[in-house]
Amino acid sequence: MSIIAFIGLGNMGLGMAANLAKAGHEVRALDISEDAIAKAVNAGCVAAGDMNDAAGKADIVITMLPAGKDVSMVYAGDVGVFDCAKPGALLIDCSTIDVATSRDVIGLASHKGFAMIDAPVSGGVAGAAAGSLTFMCGGAPEAFAAAKPVLDVMGKNVFHAGDAGNGQAAKIANNMLLGIHMIGTCEAFNLAEKLGLDAQTFYDISSTASGQNWSMTNYCPAPGPVASAPSNRDYAPGFSAAMMLKDLRLAKAAAGNSGALTPMGERAEAIYTQMEQGGHDSMDFSGVMKLIKGAL
Ligand code: NAD
Fold this sequence. Notes:
Blueprint: E1 3-7, H1 11-22, E2 26-30, H2 34-42, E3 46-47, H3 51-55, E4 60-63, H4 68-76, H5 81-84, E5 90-93, H6 99-111, E6 115-118, E7 121-122, H7 124-130, E8 133-137, H8 141-154, E9 155-160, H9 166-194, H10 199-206, H11 214-217, H12 241-258, H13 263-277, H14 288-292
Parallel strand pairs: 1-2, 1-4, 2-3, 4-5, 5-6, 8-9
Antiparallel strand pairs: 7-8
Helix pairs in contact: 1-7, 4-6, 9-12, 9-13, 12-13
Bound molecules: nicotinamide-adenine-dinucleotide.
Nicotinamide-adenine-dinucleotide binds next to helix 1, helix 4, strand 7, helix 7 and helix 12.
């Protein structure tokens, strides 16, 4: 069993750390929120007072933080992971952040002699709690191989996407596609309704025809056809429009940096920005249906 420093015990990190503790690892929990640390202790982790206390003896350091600036600060800032972790510690960043920062931080880690991977996830808070996340990892094959047994505790599918930052690239390209097909699915249901089809009739046809997609069959934005979808709970999240917008903005930045044309991704970002400007971004991202219907 390993000593694992877990930094960032919010909605996602808490469930992930709890599963590591349940599997018998010593999980040393660090967060700027005392409430987050208290919840982690309740879930079987050990409270760490500071970075030295968290990372000083850890074999593995895992971070699950909001954004790139937090990741840079936690690793490379004053009294950060790079200062405190013991030589040979394996570093795993599970946050969803911009590709450029991810590559910079992993490059710095390697300069300091640490093996590090990016390992962003999909599966949401429920997947974190259930240990059924999908991990998309980037970094050296040996670092990925060393991280895999620990990621297997927290997830069901663990992919190696290639070099440092490629996990982030996979995550934001996937989520850009999700944002696009969610909006397209809303438009199709709305058009069908305006032309006289009820949601179930259109679903029965389109879900077995060429318009079929994940947003339709797993997360249908029109109330009715998919019982578990947020559309049946007045679009309570789930995966919020704010989170989707964060990922679409990361995709836009990465597209700009790499010269990739993403006109549909940009349009999706503009539409979710409208939700944000209207103060509706805490709603599930499938709530964009209301915007498309002119009901927001
Ligand atoms: P969250 O805001 O609930 O948790 C982040 C935690 O990090 C908080 O407890 C915060 O106090 C802590 N933190 C921030 N700065 C810190 C610092 N300097 N040192 C120590 N702790 C610090 O966010 P979340 O929903 O758990 O998401 C975490 C990451 O996972 C994000 O990058 C997000 O995009 C990604 N993600 C979230 C979901 C989801 O459904 N929530 C799904 C997939 C990926």
